[in-house]
Amino acid sequence: MTPLLSVEKLNVFYDAFQAVHDVDLTVGEGEIVSIIGANGAGKSSFLKALVRQAGRVTGSARLDGCDLAALSTREIVAKGIALVPEGRKLFPTLTIFENLRIGQELGRKGDIGFEQVYEWFPVLRERRDSRARELSGGQQQMVALGRALLANPRLLLCDEISLGLAPRVVNELYAIIPQVRERGVAVVVVEQDISRSLAVADRFVCFLEGEVSLSGRPADADRDTIMQHYFGGA
Ligand code: ATP
């Protein structure tokens, strides 16, 4: 069966600096894959490359067989990939509702509408008319996740959604991921918190200096091996 996402020999360059080296990755329909790795390992560059938001990209990335190389970011979102970017990237002076609506306008038609997002994150309904800048960090992250989900992606990319947030809020955010998968959406989670990342994933990939240093199923990987491939020196 063709995987939903199929990436071969993906490289990302920022001028002469190469941040991602020959990465191969497949993600199946409804699969949750986590990418772990230290600061600067190239995780964000990899995710951003999939939606044409990172430097110069070579190699191949296909969504359900469709080559993404020729498409713009907008076209890629419309095809079914949505990114929750590191740092959320909300429009601070727009309301929650207006921020969320952007996802719906740019995305695909599908089952995930405002009601579903408000069910997942009830606080967003209560505060729908507040400006994004007035929200707590956790609430802002819910908006960023909600905005991506309203695009009705087939593949959701989450970049460090736990960053700087209290564990209780992180739990709330991560609780949504299996529910999203139940709708057939595949998810790639980039996370520095290894335990959190492995707990949610069917499969993981570890990046070290822009290369895949280890991959497997969380249950099959022991902590020491992971740490060696996370920090290097394996
Ligand atoms: P972090 O957890 O810190 O976000 P990461 O694993 O996501 O790390 P990237 O953000 O992809 O890693 O960065 C990989 C490398 O590429 C780093 O050395 C970083 O300094 C470099 N880099 C990232 N973005 C740019 C850019 N726009 N211009 C130049 N270099 C960049």
UniProtKB/TrEMBL annotation:
SUPFAM superfamilies noted in UniProt: P-loop containing nucleoside triphosphate hydrolases
Listed CDD domains: ABC_TM1139_LivF_branched (cd03224)
Species: Roseiarcus fermentans
Annotated ABC transporter domain residues: 5-234
Organism superkingdom: Bacteria
Name of the protein this chain belongs to: Branched-chain amino acid transport system ATP-binding protein
Family listed: Belongs to the ABC transporter superfamily.
GO MF annotations in UniProt: ATP binding; ATP hydrolysis activity; branched-chain amino acid transmembrane transporter activity
Keywords: Amino-acid transport, ATP-binding, Nucleotide-binding, Transport
An individual GO BP term: L-amino acid transport
